Amino acid sequence: MKERPILFSGAMVRALLNGSNLWESINGQTKGAAWSDNPWVWVVKFRRVSA
Questions:
Q1: Could you say which residues of the chain have pLDDT below 50?
Q2: CA distance 19 to 3
Q3: What's residue 25's pLDDT?
Q4: Which listed site, 5, 17, 27, 49, has its alpha carbon 20 to 30 Å from 41?
Q5: pLDDT at residue 1 in the model
Q6: Which residues, including other chains, have CB under 8 Å from residue 8's CB and lie 6 or more apart?
Q7: CB 17 within 8 A of CB 8
Q8: At a CB cut-off of 8 Å and minimum separation 6, what does 17 contact?
Q9: How many Å apart are CA 7 and CA 10, to the nearest integer?
């Protein structure tokens, strides 16, 4: 399976920067908890299904 490049819109980039800034303001001083200490981001998506 060929991987496709990930494209980010302006709104997605702003959300990512806001999230990383918030994370750093809360956890940035704790050793091993800075945003740059763990570059992996998990996305959990849900979709509504009818029963």
A1: none
A2: 26
A3: 92
A4: 49
A5: 66
A6: 16
A7: no
A8: none
A9: 10
DSSP calls for 22-50: HHHHHHTTSTT-SGGG-------------
Question: What distance in Å separates the CA atoms of residue 2 and residue 10, rounded to the nearest whole number?
Answer: 26
How crowded is residue 43: how many other Cβ atoms within 10 Å of its Cβ? 4
Q: How far apart are CA 46 and CA 12, in angstroms?
A: 18
Tokens of 12: 């997605």
Q: Is the distance from CB of 20 to CB of 35 less than 8 angstroms?
A: yes
Token readout for 41 is 């981001």
